[in-house]
Each structure stands twice: as C-alpha cells, then as structure tokens.
Write a structure and sequence with these properties.
The protein is mainly alpha-helical. The chain is built from ten helices and three strands. The protein has a three-stranded antiparallel beta sheet with strand order 1-3-2.
C-alpha cells in the first residue's frame, strides 16, 4: 500500500483497534485515502502489521463517523464528498460556532479579540503572498481561538467532532484555490474580530453563522461540480446554487 500507515508504532496505552482507527482517520482526513477508494482489510492489516480483527473494528468505527461506507456485501469504500453532506456539516458548525463566539464575548472579549486580530494580520500576509495552504491553516487557528475563548468544554468537544469532518473538505479549497473567495473570507474574519472587540454578541453570532454557511455553500458548489459517480451508499447532488463569498 502506498501509504505510511505503519509509520508510527501503536502506543502502549491504546488498543490496536483504537490505534488503527486513528491512523485510518488521519489518512482519510488528509485526503491520502481519497473519496471512493476501496479499502481491503487484508491490505490494511499488512500495511499496519496487525491482524484483520482490529482493522475490521476500525472500519466499523469509521463508518459510524461517516468516513467510510460498508455495503451489505462488506465492500468498504472511503465515503465520497457530496454537496448535501457539506451543507449538513456546515449548518451544524454554524450553530455551534455562533454560540461559541457569543460565549467568548461574555467570558473574555479582550483576550479573544487580541488573539483574533493577531491571526487576522497573519492571514492578510499569507493572502498577499498567495500562500493559500498557510491561509487555510490560519483560518482554523482563528476559529479555534474563539472556541478556546468560550471556555465550555462540552461545546468544544462537539465542535472538535464537527471539525474532524470539516477537515475532509479542506482539500477542496487547497486543490482549487480561489483568491476572491479568500479575500472575502478575510474581510469576514476582520468583521468578526471587530464584533468581539466591540462586545457585540448578537452581531458576532450572526456574522459567524453567515460566514460558515457561505463557506459551506462555496465548498458544496465545488464538490457538486466534481461529484464522483455514486458508489456503495453514496449519492450525488447536481444542484447548482448562486455564488456565495
């Protein structure tokens, strides 16, 4: 197998199934295991130097996370991106992070605003240099700073689970960067930082929700344009929508 699945040995404190789940999840989220790719238990077991039993358990766990699809005949594939999936994830993300920015303003607005403006300045530098991969990573840092500022452990846990799925779709803007999208996104981040600084929870929550929904629509549109043929348990969404920033 052309993957570095066995690059890290299993840690003593984890079961083989948990370790295999983590490794396979990382490969899927990074895009190295691409949507639509068939997964074979024996091939994965050989690559990771473990038996098929923990691989089987890992694939079942990843199916519960909607990262793989297991057909009735046990054929397993990496679940394909669909426009509908993107919209569902980003709708959920919008609600969670809208609440997070409201809580951050209530708890520590000055600290959070300072962190956001610092990241926003670095985003502007990355955009000017055309460093789009760095810009995407800074975008994640910006949203993480808001989640950390909310100081609500359960909310953060929920957001992290959603972010694990969001990371699957980050390969879309990485593979097809759109400078205008990034410029509009940067302006939205600036407005969010200003709303936190000015202690405007209603405005900040509305801005956050709109920002995430719009970003999700952009990615859903690109995914819809490049939808894979349907496979086991997979559908395509050919609907076209107006352009969003």
């Amino acid at each position: 197998m052309d993957l570095l699945l066995a690059a890290m040995p299993p840690p003593a404190h984890k079961t083989l199934a948990a370790w295999a789940t983590d490794r396979l999840r990382a490969e899927i989220l990074s895009g190295r295991l691409a949507p639509g790719r068939r997964l074979y238990e024996q091939e994965l077991a050989s690559a990771m130097h473990i038996s098929r039993t923990p691989i089987r358990d890992a694939l079942r766990a990843l199916e519960r996370e909607h990262l793989v699809t297991i057909a009735p005949n046990h054929e397993t594939v990496v679940t394909a991106h669909t426009a509908a999936d993107v919209r569902e994830i980003y709708q959920l993300r919008a609600v969670i992070e809208g609440l997070a920015v409201r809580l951050a303003i209530e708890v520590a607005p000055e600290t959070v605003a300072g962190a956001l403006f610092g990241i926003e300045r670095r985003m502007a530098v990355a955009l000017a240099a055309g460093e789009y991969d760095a810009l995407i990573d800074l975008d994640l840092d910006f949203h993480d700073a808001i989640l950390d500022g909310a100081r609500n452990g359960r909310l953060v846990d929920a957001a992290r689970r959603v972010h694990d799925q969001v990371r699957r779709y980050l390969s879309v803007p990485r593979q097809a960067p759109a400078p205008e999208e990034y410029r509009l996104s940067l302006a939205e981040h600036t407005a969010l930082a200003e709303a936190v600084r000015d202690r405007q929870p209603d405005r900040a929550e509305a801005l956050m929700r709109a920002h995430i929904i719009d970003r999700g629509e952009y990615i859903a549109r690109v995914v819809g344009d490049h939808a894979s043929p349907a496979g086991p348990g997979r559908t395509t969404d050919a609907a076209r929508h107006q352009r969003y920033p």
